[in-house]
Design goal:
With 326 residues, this protein is an alpha/beta fold. It is built from ten helices and 14 strands.
Length: 326
């Protein structure tokens, strides 16, 4: 097998997905920027497989599932990885090397990075799923279509929870404490109530799918999934309309704070809440009201890669290094 290939694993609560990519590059357009990221035209998927996580069987079993998946992929393409990138919920705490904040509870408090390197016998890079989403949409997704020379990209996950990732000149910014982009736990409004992180009024409590469903239930006195609330709002239901108004208002406030700090070229909105069309009309207008600039130039867009983003982003964590041998 010839060429530069990249290996990535997306470690989820219910499934583990792996991919081997052979990217193809295109020349970068001229830019005044001194540093420019590679511009990827496409990526040939040489292998893509998934396996059940089976987390209920314990931490050791999950590690063995990962190893089995990589062995199966290696057999299919006739080559083993020399290094591999992992995307997962949660972050590795730099001071301790332990995973925290994962919705896969049996992984929390474990030295996942160290254990994977020991188990696989190769270097491993790890980033949370929001970072991998941002990196994938920058390298292969929508960013190149809407702003080819984009230097700063903010990837947003608006779903059950709220997360984010920052890419500058094609490189992830993780930060000293591995929390760069974690805007979901900035304070937004006290009406959001208690957050799982121990604070109150976080962005996640207000405009996540869970937060919006909770708000709707508090005024309509019945529970509905977000998809139904959106449909009811389109039909003119008062409580559903109020819930969407709340989303638009606080989306504008939350995103404007990101723009005032990072001033990104592009913001990509992923997750189930990100599918709500009014974010890209009324929501963008609300953002424009709150930024410290006379007009909004940042492009706020839907993603292109969908469920593929996590595993593709994981593969790009070791971009620039050879990743397999025959």
């Amino acid at each position: 097998m010839s060429g530069h290939v990249l290996w990535g694993i997306d470690l989820g609560g219910s499934k583990i997905e792996g991919v081997v990519l052979q990217p193809t590059t295109k020349p970068c357009a001229k830019s005044r920027a001194k540093t420019r990221a590679k511009s990827w035209a496409s990526a040939n998927v040489l292998c893509r497989k998934r396996i059940a996580t089976q987390g209920s069987q314990g931490y050791g079993h999950v590690l063995n599932q990962i190893k089995s998946l990589i062995q199966a992929m290696s057999a299919e393409i006739g080559a083993r990885p020399q290094r591999i990138g992992f995307g997962m919920p949660g972050t590795i705490e730099p001071a301790t090397g332990l995973l925290r904040g994962s919705n896969s509870q049996n992984l929390n408090g474990k030295p996942l990075h160290k254990d994977l390197e020991k188990l696989l016998g190769i270097p491993v890079a790890m980033e949370n799923d929001a970072n991998c989403f941002a990196l994938a949409e920058t390298k292969l997704g929508v960013v190149g279509e809407v702003a080819e020379n984009a230097r700063v990209v903010f990837g947003v996950i608006l779903g059950t929870g709220v997360g984010g990732g920052i890419v500058v000149n094609g490189n992830l910014i993780s930060g000293t404490q591995s929390i760069a982009g974690e805007w979901g736990h900035n304070f937004l409004h006290e009406s959001g109530g208690q957050c799982f992180c121990g604070r109150s009024g976080c962005v996640e409590t207000v405009i996540s799918g869970t937060g919006l469903e909770k708000y709707y239930a508090s005024i309509a006195h019945q529970q509905r999934p977000l998809k139904q609330i959106v449909e009811l709002a389109e039909a003119g239901d008062g409580d559903a309309v109020s819930t969407m108004d709340r989303l638009v208002q606080f989306f504008g406030l939350g995103i404007s704070s990101i723009i005032n700090i990072l001033d990104p070229d592009v913001i990509v909105i992923g997750g189930g809440v990100g599918n709500i069309d009014l974010l890209y009309s009324r929501g963008v207008g609300e953002v424009a009201k709150h930024i410290f600039a006379p007009r909004l130039k940042t492009k706020i867009v839907k993603p292109k890669l969908g469920d593929s983003a996590g595993v593709f982003g994981a593969a790009f964590l070791f971009e620039g290094a050879p990743s397999q041998s025959g």
